[in-house]
Design a protein that fits this description.
The protein has 33 helices and 23 strands. It binds a DNA duplex (15 and 10 nucleotides) through helix 4, helix 6, helix 10, helix 29 and helix 30.
Length: 810
DNA sequence: CGGCCCCGCGTTTTT
DNA sequence: CGCGGGGCCG
């Protein structure tokens, strides 16, 4: 038995072995948190003889759940690992709610509304109530409703809670109507999955008992990110037995805007008497200086569980701070550092990450990386499922499974166009409202229907309804793939996208294909795995509704520099991390900088960023930044002086920055070369003046690198690549950088890629372009490229070595 | 019903 | 500046 735990250190081992009561594992960054969880589960199975289905393990992401299950399988075998009750809060609760739906007045076919559905429902309610949308901003109201739910404040109680703003009294009515509408649509939003689970357990003692009997031991990952509702539900499941183990790091609580409550972690002891606290303080990930620098920063926070993190790895290199005159220069510093480190250490591009506070910062880096021919991939774009064509199909599925789903119905009732106009839809909605039923029920009732709409409209609606009913009748006979495919064909969506040469439609078609093959994979994977004989559309929807976190780490992304926000970097690690844009007005974000709590969270965010680094951590700060169409000047972030100066190297700008490279002319601006310390500046003295002394900008004429570009990466045809492995689709969208394109010192004409007719060029932000025509070759190549956005045009103009003839802006 | 123009806004987002 | 949304026109 001891054999199992032999690879753990003392504190990890202690945390794993203690199973007699509640325990809180405070796990610093890189301290083997997941390790403790997986071993603990294995320990419960092996040493305590628990049955796998009696163990409940909750995570925040599907990815975390998947990985943990996999690692446990390695310890105890596939079979047992599979039987563990393990998943995200939302998916585990959704499953419970499907079983218990009737108790709460839902059916087990209920739909899960995503944030967009929720917002659009709030919007229609506001319209119906004729509220001034300046004063009653639908999105804000949706957010308030969500916050209420995170705090388990029901619509009836809203007026008496602190979230209620008496200057907007009608919000309460919106909330009530919102709940009523969800109910009549047989739908729950993400937050309802929690609220309803809580209601179920707190109001139905028999049901609560049933699940308490089922879950003998509960484990929670990333406990610092739980909100009040989640904490309460967990409490209801564990209060008697107190067999609970939560793991987390208060220093990495960065999701308060989503309701995460760090107090859950800080006050855990007061909820469970005799809580034992285990601290994992040894960091295995990073070198000593990095750990120490991060620690010196986080110690500035008031609110935290005291701990002494340390590393026994090599001292390594201190984090380096580099100042740049502009965002462009910042990007070029990062690029040349990537090449420098890469050639020195012979590592791959996949070992680098560029982390920023806001997504908009990615742009400058994209351009520079592309210029240097460095392959990269941006994380966190629109998820596959957010794309219009995919949402349309899913809306069809939703209506078939649950016709009362108002949001889905609204989406497809006239798509593809079938002559059901706005007025008709509005009449249906009004009638539904007046009769307290769902729009579908209006359509289904011949008397009502003919009463509210014209005869012609009624005919079209009935044709639509019978289409839906036809599919419904096939739900039980056909699996998700067969029926799903049929719906795409028979609905006319396929026809809509077929035969169009519009590049947008071609891309959609490709996504559609990827979707279909994903659907097929889902069905085969599920059928193989489970004793469940029939995999229907409903099963697919359940999966899809709670899925945003998609597989990313397939081979293709391994060789590329990762660009992402710090938020999305949580849980990841890279040999070299660049933390960019360390300026006031960016980091900390001005929105958060108004309160101490906000500032402390931002500080934790920086802590998270630093602790992602294994070997090198390079922080940059641009004095001037191009945004909102103008160059703006910024002070360095106040957080810089929160890091122990003896643990921070102030890097020298490596080379003069070429004026050629500085498209915005920042280096020519009067303040560009002004040393910082000069004007009544307190904190930054030390290393700060240096950027002025090193003759920065002195060699302005000298050229930096080559401005030559390696050509626009050959769009790899399909916008989403090949069909996805497993039931998931890929969300990471990489911008191809020309096959194997090395950063070539000499501009290689046509190297890497050549434009070909029919080729698709895709860019995450600027959309897609399609090469329609190519004439001539070499210097004289002329290509006609259709594109949608001006951003794409700029990109083409800037990077392609071809003459771009503006095509249709479809 | 789609296309065009003007206005307003600009943080992070595991489910 | 660049985008999404709403309003208006053809």
């Amino acid at each position: 038995m001891d054999e199992l735990l032999k690879s753990l250190n003392d504190s990890q081992r202690a945390a794993v072995e203690y199973c007699d009561g509640a325990s809180l594992v405070v796990a610093g960054a890189g301290s083997g948190k997941t390790r403790v969880l997986t071993y603990k589960i294995a320990w419960l199975l092996k040493a305590h003889g628990l049955q796998p289905w009696h163990i409940l393990a909750l995570t925040f992401t599907n990815k975390a759940a998947r990985e943990m299950r996999q690692r446990i399988a390695g310890l105890v075998g596939e079979e047992e690992a599979r039987r563990l009750r393990m998943g995200t809060f939302h998916s585990v609760f959704a499953r419970i709610l499907r079983v218990e739906a009737l108790t709460l007045g839902y059916t087990s076919q209920f739909t899960i509304y995503d944030q967009n559905d929720a917002r659009s429902l709030v919007k229609s309610i506001c319209r119906e109530m004729e509220l001034d949308d300046k004063k009653y901003k639908p999105n804000d109201i949706a957010d308030v409703i969500s916050q209420c739910k995170n705090h388990l404040v029901l619509a009836e109680d809203f007026e008496h809670c602190s979230l209620f703003d008496s200057s907007r009294p009608h919000e309460a009515e919106v909330f009530r109507r919102y709940q009523a509408r969800c109910k009549s649509a047989n739908a729950m939003d993400f937050d309802d999955l929690l609220v309803n689970t809580w209601l179920l357990f707190s109001q139905h003692e028999d049901i609560r008992r049933k699940y308490v009997e089922l879950f003998h031991f509960v484990l929670v990952d990333e406990y610092q990110d739980t909100n009040h509702a989640q904490q309460q539900i967990i409490y209801l499941l564990t209060k008697e037995r107190q067999c609970i183990c939560v793991v987390g790091d208060d220093a990495q609580s960065i999701y308060s805007f989503r309701g995460a409550n760090i107090e859950n972690m800080l006050n855990f002891q007061s909820l469970y008497n005799d809580t034992r606290i285990f601290k994992l303080e040894q960091n295995y990930r990073s070198t000593q200086y990095i750990v120490q620098a991060a620690d010196s920063l986080i110690k500035k926070n008031q609110q935290q569980i005291p701990k002494d993190v340390y590393s026994e790895n090599a001292h390594g290199e201190r984090p380096i701070l580099k100042y740049a005159t502009s965002d462009k220069e910042e990007a070029s510093i990062v690029c040349s550092d990537i090449e420098r480190i890469r050639s020195k250490e012979q590592c791959s591009y996949g070992d680098f990450a560029i982390l920023y506070r806001t997504n908009s910062q990615s742009r400058a880096f994209e351009e520079q990386l592309r210029k240097n021919g460095i392959p990269y991939t941006i994380y966190g774009g629109l998820s596959f499922y957010q794309r219009k064509e995919i949402k349309d199909i899913i809306a069809y599925y939703r209506v078939v499974v649950n016709p009362n789903d108002e949001e889905a119905l609204r989406r497809i009732i006239n798509y593809p166009a079938r002559g059901i106009g706005d007025t008709t839809v509005r009449k249906i909605a009004d009638s539904a409202l007046a009769n307290g039923i769902s729009p579908w029920q209006v359509i289904e009732s011949p008397q009502l229907l003919t009463q509210v709409v014209s005869k012609a409209a009624a005919g079209k609606l009935q044709a639509f309804a019978s289409l839906i009913r036809l599919w419904q009748s096939r739900l039980h006979a056909e699996d998700a793939y067969t029926l799903g495919r049929a719906i795409i064909e028979e609905s006319g969506i396929a026809r809509e996208l077929m035969g169009s040469s519009n590049p947008e439609d071609i891309s959609r078609r490709e996504n559609l294909d990827a979707f279909i093959s994903g659907l097929r994979d889902f069905v085969t994977a599920e059928a193989e795995d489970e004793r469940q004989p029939h995999i229907g559309l409903g099963d697919f929807l359940q999966e899809v509704a709670l899925l945003t976190d998609l597989d990313s780490d397939d081979d293709a992304t391994q060789q590329k520099v990762s660009l992402m926000t710090i938020h999305s970097a949580k849980g990841l690690e890279f040999s070299t991390v660049f933390i960019v844009g360390l300026e006031e007005n960016i980091f900390p974000s001005p929105m958060s900088a108004t309160s101490l709590k906000g500032l402390e969270e931002e500080r934790r965010l920086l802590y998270v960023a630093i602790t992602r680094a294994e070997h090198h951590c390079i922080i940059t700060c641009a004095e001037n930044r191009f945004r909102y169409g103008r160059m703006e000047h910024d002070e360095p972030s106040r957080f810089i002086k929160d890091i122990d100066p003896s643990l921070l190297t102030i890097g020298r700008p490596r080379k003069a920055f070429s004026a050629d490279d500085d498209a915005f002319g920042a280096s020519r601006l009067p303040w560009a070369r002004k040393p910082y310390g000069s004007s009544a500046n307190t904190g930054y003295g030390a290393g700060r003046g240096s950027s002025a002394n090193t003759g920065y900008g002195a060699g302005r004429g000298s050229s930096y690198g080559s401005t030559a570009n390696t050509g626009y990466g050959a769009g790899r045809g399909s916008s989403y690549g090949s069909p996805m492995p497993g039931p998931n689709f890929r969300r990471v969208q990489s911008v191809p950088s020309g096959e194997g394109s090395r950063p070539s010192p000499t501009p290689s004409r046509g190297g890497g890629s050549t434009l070909q007719e029919g080729m698709t060029i895709e860019h995450q932000r600027f959309g897609i372009g399609r090469v329609v025509k190519v004439e001539g070759s070499g210097e004289n190549t002329k290509a006609t490229i259709n594109f949608r956005t001006t951003g794409m045009k700029q990109l083409l103009l800037r990077f392609a070595k071809y003459t771009i003839i503006e095509g249709d802006r479809d």
